[in-house]
Write a structure and sequence with these properties.
Blueprint (H helix, E strand, L loop, with lengths): L10 H6 L1 H7 L3 H14 L8 E4 L28 E7 L3 H14 L3 E7 L12 H5 L4 E5 L21 H21 L4
Parallel strand pairs: 1-4, 2-3
Antiparallel strand pairs: 2-4
Helix pairs in contact: 4-6
């Protein structure tokens, strides 16, 4: 595994593509947006749903470790011990279905929210281009800067992540993806 302090938010994909990223010296976030825009629009197959796996792995059961912006602060807990499923209002049904399926398979706490896309930052991940292309999409996240004090700092290293809870996320998402695939007769 490549050691890349300050980059847990991009996960294994950054480690796998480190050589390419270093060679290009491009802004990885902007590169992802360009690729995402192209992939969202130029799809030969029907997109049933897009799940953007964004910053995950930092959890805390202590009170006041979750600092959510409005409107999330009105319904998210103050403990940073959950995974969040966030979508725009056109993807509301997807959030409900995904959270329900996730909770049937995983014991990890989870929260779902469907809010107006106009809220700043709601589309800052790879799901944004899919919304703009008219597809349903959501972001799966531990809420990154609203919980993790190490986010975008040199202290953001694998030792600060909770891999047991991250495994629970993977188990739940496996079932979610299987169900979404069967909806379109892909299974």
């Amino acid at each position: 595994m490549v050691s890349m302090p300050g980059r847990s938010y991009a996960g294994p994909a950054v480690a796998a593509d480190a050589a390419v990223v270093n060679a290009l010296r491009a802004d990885v976030t902007q590169l992802a947006v360009v690729i995402g825009e192209r992939n969202a629009v130029n799809r030969p197959e029907k997109v049933v749903a897009m799940l953007a796996l964004e910053t995950m792995g930092y959890f805390s059961d202590e009170k006041n470790t979750q600092h959510s912006p409005w409107p999330f602060s009105t319904f998210y807990p103050t403990e940073g011990n959950f995974i969040a499923f966030v979508a725009d209002t056109t993807s509301r049904a997807l959030v409900r279905d995904v959270v329900s399926t996730f909770r049937q398979q995983s014991t990890l706490a989870s929260e779902g929210a469907s809010v107006p896309a106009a809220i700043e930052g709601i589309d800052w991940s790879d799901h944004g281009p899919y919304w703009r292309a008219g597809s349903v999409a959501l972001m799966v996240t531990d809420t990154a800067p609203f919980r993790n004090p190490n986010y975008h700092h040199e202290s953001d290293v694998p030792d600060t992540l909770d891999f047991t809870r991250l495994a629970h996320v993977a188990v739940g998402l496996r079932r979610v993806v299987a169900k979404l695939a069967s909806v379109d007769g892909v299974q």
